[in-house]
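[Meeting: bench + compute handoff]

Bench side (C.D.) handed over the final construct sequence. Compute side (W.E.) agreed to return the predicted structure before the next meeting so the bench team could plan truncations. Sequence as handed over:
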Amino acid sequence: MNLVWLVSILVLCVRSFSEAARGPNVIKIGALLTLNSINGKVSRIALKAAEDDINSDPRFLGGRKLSITIHDSKFNGFLSIIGALEFMEADTVAIIGPQNAVMAHVLSHLANELHVPFLSFTALDPTLTPLQYPYFVQTAPNDEFQMTAIADIVSYFGWGEVVAIYSDDDQSRNVVTILGDKLAERRCKISYKAVLAPDPTANRSDVMNELVKVQQMESRVIVLSTFKRTGLLVFDVAKSIGMMENGYVWIATTWLSTVLDSTLALSSKTANTLHGSLTLRPHIPDSQRKRAFMSRWNQLSNGSIGLNPYGLYGYDTVWMIAHAVKQLLDQNGSFSFSNDSNLSGIGGGTLNLEALNVFDGGEQLLKNILQINMTGVTGPIQFNPDRSLLYPSYDIINVVESNHQQIGYWSNYSGLSVVPPETLYEKPPNRSFSSQHLLDVVWPGGGTAKPRGWVFANNGRELRIGVPNRVSYRDFVSKVNSTEIVQGYCIDVFLAALKLLPYPVPHKFVPFGDGLKNPSYSDLVFKILSGDFDAAVGDIAIVTNRTKIVDFTQPYIESGLVVVAPVRKLNSSPWTFLRPFTPLMWGVTAVFFLIVGSVVWILEHRTNDEFRGPPKKQIATIFWFSFSTMFFSHRENTVSTLGRLVVIIWLFVVLIINSSYTASLTSILTVQQLSSPIRGIDSLVTSNQRIGFQVGSFVENYLSEQLNIAKHRLVPLGSPEEYAIALKRGNVAAVVDEGPYVERFLSDHCAFSIRGQEFTKSGWGFAFPRDSPLAIDMSTAILALSENGELQKIHEKWLSPKKACDSHNSVADSEQLQLKSFWGLYLICGIAFLLALLIYFFLMLRQFSRHRPDESLTSSQGSGPSSRLQTFLSFADEKEDEWKSRSKRKRRDSSSFNGYMKDDESRDGSVRIDREISQDS
């Protein structure tokens, strides 16, 4: 009997050990949902459907069952924590949820400690990073991609600023921060953030107060990031205060699309308040699995609620856990739980902390989840290395009355398009602006024309536009005496540009200055920064320091700095013909004429009879040939190759010099010439003379700070008359001012002229506060004025020069031709002459070396250096033909002499032989 009991106990132990080794029969999964919310209701149905589908195939988990326990957190963080702890005590291997990011941040610390993976398809805060929360996995695209999509929509329609309205919770707060970053990448920004109480605690009065503030803002593009109850309340209040009318743009995050998809029938009131708004919906590719699940939905939900994309993501999340568990079973992974060493030392109290155990297989289960590669009802499911889902994308929805229509798609792969993203995945990515497309949108108020996106602040208050109250140059801008009327060239340009804007701009001109002297334009611009003026209109130069504090429009007139100095008329004289060239140019040219004559004489002397003769004749030939080339009338022909090459190069130089001289002399004799010691800004800076500038302009700072001119050299001048007096009396050597002012000054004062070239490039523009949309629209209007000719007509009306000085002001300030303009030609000539001489002397030395042995045979003189030099000079002076004939004759004579010597030796030999024979006899 005891043996039977012993065998039974052993069998039970073996069976228990075997079951422990192959895992529990029931795989426990927890779910933290808020069942009273739309996503909570839809997710509950989807999770249970997935549980049933998995358990319907006993072979999938090897006969084991998947058990999902749902805990209702009821919008309460404390209840969420209690639910998570209960799941941990019950040896749960994974938890789906929590539903919001606030609790995800809290419970992820619990997951990190106990190694239980948390999977959420609704807590999509981008700050829930895997580095900080390794056991938290987002199974739907996180909100960073949604904010990128919204930023792309704002950029696509060309809006520069948005207002963000959001609930004061972690998820909404963080996504608005990311939205600001994404907008900044596209040169846009959030101009105002309206914060509401966390959902669902926001009340109507709080929402009303914030929307009234938003209504006072310039921006009319509003991004709403919240949840159902608060979101619908915002739209209701906005409708009641007129913020759902023409001109407004409302972009809601995905909460609105879940309301539209899951609410079976929107009330007419709600549909009316949402009319014209835009929202995003996670894009689910069309597939057979998706259609099959949607066809089951009415049966699963009993028609109580509609299906939204987060229900599909919930269904796939359960399947992801099931696949990961199956793989863990195949890997013989552990499903055991062990005590947490960090909790073992904690005692006292009634908390049952010892029941919180560490899931030994949690790390491997998490790894299996992240390596998942399956196809679900949401399409292909796979994680990137950063744990984001592959190819996140959204549908862009336009709410129209009681219906909603899709106007396009957004994907992280290709941006905005009207083609489903899965079609574009087969093509190379293209995020260029020209490839971005959306269908037509019905905006709040029922219009289809794109809203401007902004209005003037304070409900159309007149803009206070500062204008300089000038004392001089009143043609540009001035206040009519004893009236409030402001007129002038700049005012007419501004008013003409306003007429081209598609909206009215109420404004009021406010003169700036005491009327006794020209005001400081830098102070005028600073008044915009301080808020005293909404804009500044006038002859305001666009300079660096000003662009740092305000935005300027497109320049409507060029206004670079120029130098004005007194000039005297150069009258004709008997020596006018010398004026085209500077003395140095004349001298160098004369020297080169002599050099070319000498070089040609050297190259031609031994071969050309025309370059031989008595010394006086040869010197005369050199001079004649040199200067006759100026007129291409030289009669001497060159016969050597080197001589011809030198002459060709020189004649090319002479051609250019003659042409330049002729053109300059023609200008001198036909155009009035002006002379001044001031040649431009360079000569003015290097001198110690005083310089005048206009009071109130930026010229003083530019000359002292940029050109380092001492301030004691700078003289302020208040009017054109002061310019003229100071220049005539010599109080200043020159005046530096902007081009348009100088143009007006010279039209009345003919004794002065612009010296040198314009040395800065700038323009005049209208100043507006930083990032003002009006600055962009006005720039477009100014370009249109330039293209249609209206800008030129306004210029001719106010700034056309007076007839008395037309001829004088059109005079060209002709300068003498200087050597620096021709030194390249002379350098080429010099190199060519030098090479020709080197080649010539090399060839002559070669001939001389062959000639010297013949000379040494017949020379009876010594062979010292002086003798050799004398011989070489004689050789160089000798005509080449004569040298050749003489050389032949000498070689012939030398041959005859050698023959005679041989005959004498022969005779001497014969005599010696006869004499020896006689002696022998």
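W.E. noted at the follow-up: The CA atoms of residues 553 and 776 lie 7 Å apart. C.D. will use this when planning the next construct.
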